[in-house]
Q: What sequence folds into this?
């Protein structure tokens, strides 16, 4: 049920594979247990590593004694920072006012969070390595833990000597004149929202196999990463092995969600251990390590103020945001990424001309914060939408109506937000109306009244949003984030049999990139989908992509590059075909692998015949001097913004505080849809992840900075029993600024669902007068809302 | 998450097991379904020198009904087998009702009745259930067999009244007395998780519809399955109306521990909510229940 709004930039080609519901080509392998992950990599003489990890959250290292560990049978080596070349990671952002906090690959003088790697043990098996890790004796002098951004414990010792107040950022910016607007505003509404720390929790934890060959002076690395070229740079810098001799290879990756963007200290440490020992070393992270020491996310407090007139028109907005950075500002994407992006996208799908924000981010003795699907957007979305609902209740205006009055309208595009985001196209009102229809809003209100009369409490939440997607240079400039240069290319090669291999630097973590890119290439080339494969990324042969797969960008950026390269290749093939068929290449058509000359009784040749002849007949070189059928194209898209609206229906048990999500509906708009199957997988999977953030997931620490959630018994992910039925409709507002109007959708569902669910809880319990002030809303928090209502009488 | 080194023995009979347990003493741990011990080994929270595997001992599995006089459930009976057993449904409906709440189906396929009881996790369903139905635990060692009431079996967090040379071989469930009904209620953040609080309620009525026997046992609020004895006493001699149940439950003092999943006061509140629901559900089941023990 697709509706198209905005400028159509659909190609003139006949309806082809782009926009067709095609089953994912990678599923045959992934669902049959034939995926190949880094844990499956084995090499002659390979040895296995375990890390010795810090148990105190903040301590000076007085001494490390590896003697007992080294003498355990089966142990090859026990290495500390002193045994490896000094290597640090530092984030690559250049945002004015952001303090840099370099992170050592292995802790040197101090440990700054529970789980920080202190030493590596390499042994004949992971079992022996873990036995020996227990024998490494580390003598610590414990220091008070900073457990809360901006709060100093008594006897405070700075986490980094250079940052006496632990602050990495403390700045604000103002757009329009919010002071004036607030001063004269008839109504001001205020909202506080705290987001717990949570994390990506990919099914496959992190892992690396590193093999240094001292004879060749080369370093081969297999890694579960989203950014193989970025990792290659970091590995080269840390090891001193020249970049062209470092090779990062990817196979399947079992989910990343942002956690695997950055180069991780452990990955570098394993490579350095292989260099030091001259043997292949393998580290496969276990779940406890991942929950403790892999980068975390969220961890924000948002204070919002909204000024409106009597009709509910939004006059101005003000935000104060505090981010918990963890112990280091993480390399490749600073911990500032959460609060800073929150601040920059705060105005959402609404026309708000006057806005001011202040962002503070502070170090804490916790695992560093890295991007996680929906980074920053979720805090903004949830705080703002809850606040709008509260304003609607207070003003006596229907929630859909209040949003409608303030939304950016179709004739506003391109719309420049006050913070400088240029929304290219979209279906904001239509998405809202679609959710209103899908949720049968009027019927729902009756149902809700009847349920309440019989002691059942159901609620509906709505969450319309816009998100930057397909991040290229322009998107980054608009948001004011400069963590990575956008410089991505794709190579499309046709071999002598007429089959195509695509090579990219934005590997898949399971989201369907192999299918969508093959669809694009097959459509442009006019060949069957089966004739195109997307190869695993190998940094030694794949075109460089320093950013890698992140920020809802692969379909837009690599999709565009693949499309352009396929177009080049198509032209070359047709040129040769024209010479062979002795006709004007421009009149030839190609479909299903067959090139047809419509003027000559539909004379035809297959693509494969053309390519074979081009390889064999040297005389063809007079028509095409370079008959190689490989094309590489660079693509850096304009800024593009996807949008969607999510609606959630929940039932709350006021006695236990239990929340059951009954239904989630969504209308999504990611521009030109390449494949509905893949879009729905991303959107629904994202909403399920958002449900976790809304109701279940939080990383808990005690007052000493010790992490309490170290297994999946304590860190609760949504399972099939918590996830409801999803209903999705597609809207299509192609972008005028990207190849064929494609927008990204990788993060969409995750951004929208938490606000919808939180708002549904607030709606179900509206009669209590209590509000949702945190995520996740655990049962005890929901019960507290009921009790606060009872206390108010 | 790899276990520390341990030895492994797989005896084929109870007698052989008891010999091995006597010779290894405290150094050995028996493994049944492995659904708790497995993770504990991997997390190195348990580091026994020897693991004695009971899975080859066929004589420990099985359910035998005693012709209207209750039933005996072998320690190695898989939870899923008990859950789907007509004998259990007839003779111990409370157990049949509570078993689906134990983790997930795949875990119950492997997990055993005896394993869960001997593990003595106070947050688990089965210890509360066997305490509520006044089951007896059948324990053997080389020196013979002894039987103790369930309420004396659970001594503390993960601690059962078992000597290092003793094996829990069966649990004996008495027949359901006439005009006795039961119900299980629990609340967990996600389905399949350990409940924050669970309540087993058993109610017996005399011919006049007055409570002559009540058993209310909670999981998740103490180091052992906790009987709500004040509430039990308050119910006896009364007609179990909602108001009577509410008054009885309100009279009960509890002092649950706080942890990551819930504060003490929240747990205390849940005890009230769930005890009320369980007792009301058990009472409703009395209707049309002519002396027949049914769920």
A:
């Amino acid at each position: 049920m697709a509706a198209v709004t905005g400028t159509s930039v659909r190609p003139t080609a006949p309806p082809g594979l782009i926009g067709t519901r095609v089953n994912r080509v990678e599923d045959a392998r992934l669902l049959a247990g034939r995926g190949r992950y880094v844990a499956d990599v084995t090499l002659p003489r390979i040895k296995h590593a375990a890390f010795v990890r810090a148990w105190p959250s903040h301590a000076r290292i007085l001494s490390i004694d590896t003697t007992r560990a080294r003498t355990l049978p089966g142990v090859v080596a026990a290495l500390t920072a002193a045994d490896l070349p000094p290597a640090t990671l530092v984030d690559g952002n250049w945002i004015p006012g952001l303090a840099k906090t370099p992170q050592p690959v292995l802790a040197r003088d101090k440990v700054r969070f529970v789980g920080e790697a202190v030493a590596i043990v390499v042994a004949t098996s992971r079992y022996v390595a873990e036995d020996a890790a227990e024998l490494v004796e580390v003598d610590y002098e414990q220091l008070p833990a900073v457990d809360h951004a901006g709060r100093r414990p008594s006897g405070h010792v700075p986490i980094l000597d250079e940052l006496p107040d632990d602050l990495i950022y403390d700045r604000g910016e103002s757009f329009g004149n919010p002071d004036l607007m607030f001063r004269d505003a008839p109504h001001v509404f205020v909202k506080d929202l705290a987001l717990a720390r949570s994390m990506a929790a990919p099914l496959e934890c992190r892992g690396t196999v590193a093999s240094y060959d001292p004879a060749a002076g080369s370093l081969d690395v297999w890694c579960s990463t989203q950014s193989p070229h970025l990792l290659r740079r970091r590995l080269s810098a840390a090891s001193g092995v020249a970049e062209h001799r470092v090779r990062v290879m990817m196979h399947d990756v079992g989910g990343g969600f942002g956690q695997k963007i950055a180069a991780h200290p452990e990955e570098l440490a394993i490579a350095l251990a292989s260099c030091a020992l001259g043997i292949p070393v393998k580290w496969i992270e276990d779940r406890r390590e991942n929950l403790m020491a892999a980068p975390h996310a969220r961890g924000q407090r948002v204070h919002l103020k909204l000024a409106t007139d009597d009709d509910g028109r939004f006059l101005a907005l003000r935000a104060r945001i505090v981010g918990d950075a963890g112990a280091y500002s993480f390399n490749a994407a600073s911990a500032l990424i959460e609060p800073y992006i929150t601040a920059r996208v705060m105005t959402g799908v609404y026309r708000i001309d006057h806005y001011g924000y202040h962002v503070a981010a502070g170090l804490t003795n916790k695992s560093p914060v890295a991007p996680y699907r929906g980074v920053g957007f979720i805090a903004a979305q949830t705080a703002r939408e809850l606040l709008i609902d509260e304003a609607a209740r207070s003003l006596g205006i229907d929630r859909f109506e209040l949003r409608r009055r303030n939304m950016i309208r179709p004739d506003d595009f391109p719309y420049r937000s006050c913070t400088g985001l240029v929304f290219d196209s979209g279906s904001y009102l239509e998405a809202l109306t679609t959710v209103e229809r899908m949720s049968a809003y009027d019927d729902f209100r009756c149902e809700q009244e009847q349920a309440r009369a019989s002691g059942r409490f159901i609620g509906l939440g709505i969450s319309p949003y816009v998100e930057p997607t397909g991040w290229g240079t322009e998107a980054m400039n608009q948001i004011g984030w400069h963590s990575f240069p956008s410089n991505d290319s794709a190579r499309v090669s046709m071999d002598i049999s007429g089959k195509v291999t695509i090579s990219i630097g934005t590997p898949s973590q399971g989201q369907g990139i192999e299918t969508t890119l093959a669809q694009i290439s097959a459509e442009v080339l006019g060949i069957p989908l089966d004739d195109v494969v997307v190869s695993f990324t190998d940094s030694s042969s794949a075109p460089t992509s320093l950013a890698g797969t992140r920020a809802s960008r692969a379909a837009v950026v690599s999709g565009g590059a693949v499309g352009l390269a396929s177009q080049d290749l198509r032209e070359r093939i047709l040129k040769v075909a024209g010479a062979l068929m002795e006709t004007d290449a421009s009149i030839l058509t190609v479909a299903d692998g067959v090139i047809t000359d419509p003027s000559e009784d539909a004379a035809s040749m297959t693509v494969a015949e053309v390519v074979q002849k081009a390889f064999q007949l040297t005389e063809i070189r007079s028509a095409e001097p370079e008959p190689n059928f490989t094309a590489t194209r660079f693509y850096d898209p304009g800024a593009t913004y996807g949008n969607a609206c999510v609606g959630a229906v929940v039932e709350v048990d006021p006695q236990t505080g239990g929340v059951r999500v009954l239904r989630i509906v969504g209308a999504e708009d990611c521009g030109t849809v390449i494949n509905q199957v893949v879009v729905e997988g991303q959107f629904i999977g994202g909403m399920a992840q958002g449900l976790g953030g809304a109701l279940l997931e939080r990383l808990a620490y005690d007052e000493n900075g010790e992490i309490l959630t170290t297994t999946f018994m304590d860190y609760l992910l949504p399972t099939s029993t918590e996830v409801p039925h999803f209903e999705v409709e597609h809207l299509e507002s192609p972008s005028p600024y990207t190849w064929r109007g494609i927008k990204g959708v990788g993060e969409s569902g995750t951004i929208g669902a938490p606000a919808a669910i939180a708002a549904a809880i607030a709606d179900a319990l509206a009669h209590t007068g209590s509000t949702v002030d945190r995520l996740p809303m655990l049962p005890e928090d929901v019960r507290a809302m009921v009790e606060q209502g009872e206390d108010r009488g | 998450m790899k276990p520390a080194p341990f030895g492994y023995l797989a005896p084929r009979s109870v007698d052989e097991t008891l010999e091995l347990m006597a010779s290894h003493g405290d150094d050995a741990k028996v493994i049944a379904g492995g659904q708790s011990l497995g993770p504990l080994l991997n997390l190195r929270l348990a580091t026994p020198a020897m693991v004695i595997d009971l899975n080859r001992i066929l004589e420990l599995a099985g359910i035998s009904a005693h012709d209207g006089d209750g039933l005996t459930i072998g320690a190695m009976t898989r939870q899923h087998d008990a859950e789907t057993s007509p004998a259990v449904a007839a003779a111990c409906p409370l157990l049949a009702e509570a078993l689906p709440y134990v983790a997930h189906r795949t875990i119950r396929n492997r997990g055993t009745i005896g394993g869960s009881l001997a593990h003595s996790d106070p947050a688990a369903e089965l210890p509360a259930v066997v305490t509520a139905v006044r089951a007896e635990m059948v324990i053997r060692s080389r020196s013979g067999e002894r039987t103790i009431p369930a309420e004396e079996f659970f001594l503390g967090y993960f601690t059962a009244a078992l000597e290092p040379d003793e094996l829990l071989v069966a649990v004996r469930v008495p027949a359901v007395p006439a005009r006795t009904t039961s119900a299980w209620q629990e609340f967990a953040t996600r389905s399949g998780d350990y409940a924050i609080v669970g309540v087993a309620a058993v109610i017996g009525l005399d011919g006049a519809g007055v409570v002559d026997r009540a058993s209310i046992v909670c999981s998740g609020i103490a180091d052992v399955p906790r009987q709500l004895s004040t509430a039990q006493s308050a119910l006896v001699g009364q007609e179990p109306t909602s108001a009577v149940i509410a008054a009885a439950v309100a009279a009960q003092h509890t002092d649950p521990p706080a942890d990551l999943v819930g504060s003490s006061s929240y747990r205390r509140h849940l005890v009230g909510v769930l005890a009320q629901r369980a007792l009301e559900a058990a009472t409703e089941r009395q209707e049309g229940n002519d002396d027949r023990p049914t769920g």
